[in-house]
Write a structure and sequence with these properties.
With 751 residues, this protein is mainly α. It is built from 26 helices and 5 strands. The radius of gyration is 27 Å and the shape is elongated.
Length: 751
């Protein structure tokens, strides 16, 4: 069977009425339905609108934005994934996604759209690949449904509007799965090697998360491919070599560079990429610890308490769980309907692969004790979508043809889906209150129609049966579609910005993310310190990500900070880079006018978005005096915001979580002695994570002894004598409270 978008012959979809006798051999070429390509184009257009509409009004993650910007200024920073162009420290992920965005910004100029174009292209590519993959196993209708479900998954829409690396990760994993199915079906070694390379590149996007689906891929190839066991073993050995090379080339290259000549690898305990792989981005994500919070404590940082029901809690339920029950029913019933099909049956192989994808991701995310953000669950969406499309079509054939006990699976699955949709919509108190009754009524009517009219093959009853099915699909997708539309059209209260994007309204009123259910702060700001760690009021975070001591409810020192869920989450004005850059290059006109809430709460607690914070930034640039770095601050989030608002490299001394050992007293003395750094921020509460408060005390004592505190009167014309007096006396308190102070040090001060 071929189509305009898939011109290669592939196994035929089983004929109507014979779901148990699934064909496995090639069929004569057949023309695609006339609606197939227009439907795919329409779905891609819908997705493009959801991912790109009103994009300038949604803030990005300043942590990654700063790294992309730094990569446009330094090829070394581009290769290592450095947060700053001076290459002091990297982000806490491998740099593949940043490399792609960085190349786009090098070619087109740095800005929101230039950064997001490859992200949107990757998201659309994922839909196209999934459509082609599902079409080969289940047909055009199943492919269209799968593509639509993926496009309308709320958390997928939210993350595809952001510059986090998950969009590229999902593209590579779906590409790897599609190539693995082709290798299984067509016995092509190049396809299997291509699958291994895709998963290896996924590893270089988010490390071990890129491997979650690999066990399912290997199992399906071993079970369903045609070659003998000896040839399978040789093929898999070749694929393992390709996987290893594509996975570890970056870490190997980094390790070959002497430690003194490369930046500190953010998130690691010893500055090496290998430690990052095994620790913070490895087992630490699952077991806790390694900068991911303590193991055994439930792992409820942003996504609720760990457990098998986590995907359905108040935090994650509205983001990913809408169609998980139906996908599970479709998987079980679909495998049963395959009956005694040959071992090499392509349809059953596809069900096993996407079912394995769903189960492996579900268990990993549900039981993870370490850091767990809602947007991680976007990796579940392809498995859910493929099972809903492919499995749903199999259940439809069973219902229409009758003669099997599984003919009731489709109405049952749609009924469960409708009930769960009503539950989720009722959680969103006061949001589109008409929607849940409409979904409930439409589900009841549609399911009743399917039950009454089942087995109708012609005439009016058949058309009514088709209408009932269409109504059931609309009812199943209405809830997630409403959530998915909220980031683009502002129709919900989801957190669309930067560090923890979600879609739809906040459900409930608990903690741990939108809608509650976890032990952390309601927004990511409270956990990651994107308010609490902001310049110039924030210090590094503790090892478990808790707000600095003395911080306010949003993690901001002295109770200051942005509004929960929007600007205060990232520290930038909504829709703009920190500093009002609005997607323009840092340091240009308007970029230094302020740094959003990240620049509020300046020295002595003064200044708003256009007050002492922006004045201090201008002062630091004026008096940089040839130093490589503008200033050294405690954490990466605040450093990133400063990089974007000033266009200058900024040192993050303790990394993203505050647990990095990037800065030592000897290193600090060397930088000051060489004239590479003149300004250091102390205070803001907290200290380096991992209990290494002795390092903070050591650095604080040395800076206070040898440096000179910068008074607010030196840079702010509006400062009062009282605030100046407060600055003059704040040196003794910095590093010990929520207060922060900037110090100036010259080479002579280092001795």
């Amino acid at each position: 069977m071929t189509s305009a978008t898939d011109p290669h012959t592939h196994p035929a979809v089983p004929p109507d009425g014979a779901p148990q006798a699934l064909a496995t051999g090639p069929a004569p070429p057949d023309r695609a339905p006339r609606w197939s390509l227009p439907a795919l184009i329409a779905i891609l257009a819908l997705a493009a609108v959801l991912y790109g509409w009103n994009l300038s009004d949604g803030s990005l993650n300043s942590f990654y934005s700063a790294a992309v910007y730094s990569g446009t200024k330094s090829w070394e920073a581009w290769f290592f994934g450095s947060l700053d162009a001076g290459n002091f420290i990297t982000v806490d992920k491998p740099p593949l996604a940043l490399m792609i965005m960085g190349l786009s910004c090098r070619i087109l100029g740095f800005g929101t759209w230039q950064m997001m174009l490859p992200q949107i292209a990757a998201a659309l590519g994922t839909i196209w690949i999934l459509h082609a993959c599902v079409k080969r196993a289940f047909g055009h209708t199943a492919a269209a449904l799968a593509a639509l479900v993926l496009a309308l998954t709320p958390i997928t829409v939210a993350i595809d509007r952001d510059n986090n690396p998950d969009t590229v990760l999902v593209l590579l994993m779906v590409g790897g799965a599609a190539l693995a199915l082709r290798a299984t079906r067509d016995d092509r070694l190049p396809a299997l090697l291509g699958s291994a390379v895709c998963f290896g590149l996924a590893f270089n996007t988010k490390m071990l998360q890129g491997y979650i689906a690999l066990p399912a891929v290997v199992a399906v190839y071993l079970y369903a491919s045609r070659p003998g066991w000896r040839r399978k073993a040789l093929n898999l050995a070749s694929a393992a070599v390709a996987l290893a090379v594509s996975s570890f080339w970056w870490a190997t290259a980094v390790s070959l560079v002497p430690a003194d000549d490369r930046p500190y690898i953010g998130g690691s305990a010893d500055g090496s990429a290998w430690d990052l792989i095994m620790g913070y981005n490895g087992l630490g994500r699952v077991l806790g610890g390694e900068g991911n919070g303590g193991g055994g404590g439930g792992g409820g940082t942003f996504a609720g308490t760990a457990g098998l029901g986590r995907m359905f809690n108040d935090v994650l339920g509205g983001q990913i769980s809408w169609l998980i029950p139906f996908a599970g029913i479709a998987l079980v019933a679909g495998l049963a309907l395959c009956g005694r099909a040959p071992r090499t049956d392509a349809t059953r192989a596809a069900l096993l692969l996407w079912g394995g994808w769903l189960v492996l991701h579900y268990l990993t995310f549900a039981l993870a004790e370490g850091t767990m953000h809602p947007y991680y669950t976007t990796a579940l969406a392809p498995g859910v979508a493929a099972l809903c499309g492919g499995g749903g079509v199999l259940l439809w054939r069973a219902l229409r043809d009758g003669g099997t006990r599984w003919s009731w699976a489709l109405p049952a699955g749609l009924a469960v889906t409708g009930v769960w949709a009503v539950v989720l919509l009722r959680r969103a108190t006061g949001w589109n209150t008409w929607l849940w009754p409409a979904v409930g009524v439409l589900t009841v009517l549609a399911v009743a129609g399917l039950c009454v009219l089942r087995s109708s093959r012609s005439g009016l009853r058949a058309r009514l049966l088709g209408a009932a099915l269409a109504a059931a699909v609309v009812a199943a997708l209405a809830g997630p579609a409403a959530y998915a539309a909220s980031p683009a059209f502002g129709s919900g209260g989801g957190m669309t910005g930067g560090t923890n994007p979600t879609a739809g309204p906040s459900a409930g009123g608990g903690t741990g993310g939108p809608g509650g259910g976890g032990p952390g702060s309601r927004t990511e700001a409270g956990r990651r310190g994107s308010s609490g760690g902001e310049f110039p009021g924030g210090g590094p975070q503790s090892g478990d990500g808790a707000p600095p001591q003395g911080g306010g409810t949003n993690g901001a020192p002295n109770g200051q900070g942005g509004q929960e869920g929007q600007g205060g989450q990232q520290g930038g004005s909504v829709g703009e880079f920190p500093g009002g850059a609005a997607g323009g290059a840092p340091g240009e006109a308007g970029a230094g006018a302020g740094a959003g809430s990240g620049m509020s709460g300046g020295m002595g607690g003064g200044g708003g978005a256009d007050g002492a914070g922006s004045a201090l930034a201008a002062y630091l640039k004026k008096h940089q005096d040839g130093a490589t770095w503008l200033i050294a601050v405690s954490g990466s989030q605040s450093a990133g915001q400063l990089i974007l608002s000033t266009g200058e490299p900024v040192i993050s001394m303790f990394g993203f979580t505050g647990s990095d050992n990037a800065m030592t007293l000897a290193r600090l003395e060397e930088l000051v002695r060489n004239g590479e750094l003149h300004y250091i921020q102390l205070g803001g509460g907290g200290g380096p994570g991992g209990g290494n408060n002795s390092l903070l005390a050591e650095i604080t004592a040395w800076v206070q002894k040898h440096g000179t505190a910068v008074k607010e009167s030196a840079y702010s014309a509006t400062s009062s004598s009282s605030s100046s007096g407060a600055d003059a006396s704040s040196g003794a308190q910095s590093g010990q409270s929520g207060r922060s102070t900037v110090y100036r040090l010259d080479p002579s001060d280092a001795g």
